[in-house]
Amino acid sequence: MPRKSPAPRPVSATSQQPPLISARWLATSVGLTIAAAAVCAWAALCLLFWQGSWQLLYHPAAAITRTPAAASLSFESVAFDPDNAGQPQLTAWWIPQSPISGRAAIYLHGADGNLSNTVNLLTRLHAAGLNVFAIDYRGYGQSHQSHPSETSLREDADAAIAYLTATRHIPAASIVLIGSGLGANLALEVAAAHPELAGVILDQPIAAPMQAVFSDARARLVPAHALVHDRYDLNAASDLHIPTLWLETETGSTQQAPDAYAQIPSRKMLVWLPSGPVQAHTFDAPLARWIDSLGH
């Protein structure tokens, strides 16, 4: 006889139910997922701010639209500061006196544009009897294109000093640093680190340059002070040990020397310039007097 198949065992109601997930575990998982997504979004925001915050302070232009030739000045375009591959990283204009005088000026422009915006001022510096070496930082003009920073600008200014002393054979004691705007903040820092220079001219340094970055609405969402290392602190004035000419613009009936100016321990001179277009006598005469005070 054929063997009967065993009857199927009854399935209990308990074994048919899927395993239960506790509400607490589910809420915890959802919360952790949302928190992880928020952290990732915040980290991405920090990264974007770190990569792009330089544009809040620096506004470089690549195109050279004007040269000293527009002011009938003879000049030489210079490429210097080679990298490891021998490629120059920086470009500059060398505007010599004829015959070449003993005093040379390194000009450091502000955060906007490039050397094209400086021709008028360079003309006046040259008229004061200075050989002028005006540089474009990396990221500006025809110099190597990279994101500028306080560190890179300091390196570029140091490279300019090295070029004049090593290549042009101009003694450091015959070199004057001149900076305008953010370039004045930079010139102050560099001059404090180079007491062997003849002097420094600070043309309207910016009291709080990093406010443009740290007051941005996006900076409130990230640890901006930890992500951005630029400072351009004028407190470096207390370390200045070379003659200093400080130029400020009149803003009212009362003229009060900047706090940083009061900190300078070396010989110093403060000149107030009228607001609006600067008249030649308010700039050129004090400049010539200050240069003469340096001796030869």
Top CATH class: Alpha Beta
Please outline the major beta sheet: 8 strands, mixed
How many strands in all? 10
Judged by helices, strands and strand pairing, the structural class is: alpha/beta
CATH homologous superfamily name? Alpha/Beta hydrolase fold, catalytic domain
Distance between the termini: 130 Å
Task: Please name the CATH architecture.
Answer: 3-Layer(aba) Sandwich
Helix content: 25-40%
Mean pLDDT: 91
Description:
The strands form two sheets. Strands 2-3-6-4-7-8-9-10 form an eight-stranded mixed β-sheet, sandwiched between helices. A two-stranded parallel ribbon has the order 1-5. α8 (about 260-265) links the parallel β9 and β10. It contains nine helices and ten strands. It has helices at about 15, 25-50, 120-125, 150-165, 180-195, 210-215, 225, 260-265, 280-295; strands spanning about 60, 75-80, 90-95, 105-110, 110-115, 130-135, 175-180, 200-205, 245-250, 270-275. Helix content is about 35%, strand content about 20%. α4 (about 150-165) packs across α5 (about 180-195).
Q: In terms of topology, how is this protein built?
A:
Elements: H1 13-16, H2 23-52, E1 59-60, E2 76-82, E3 88-95, E4 104-108, E5 112-113, H3 119-127, E6 131-136, H4 150-166, E7 175-180, H5 182-193, E8 199-203, H6 211-214, H7 224-227, E9 244-249, H8 259-263, E10 268-273, H9 280-293
Parallel strand pairs: 1-5, 4-6, 4-7, 7-8, 8-9, 9-10
Antiparallel strand pairs: 2-3, 3-6
Helix pairs in contact: 4-5
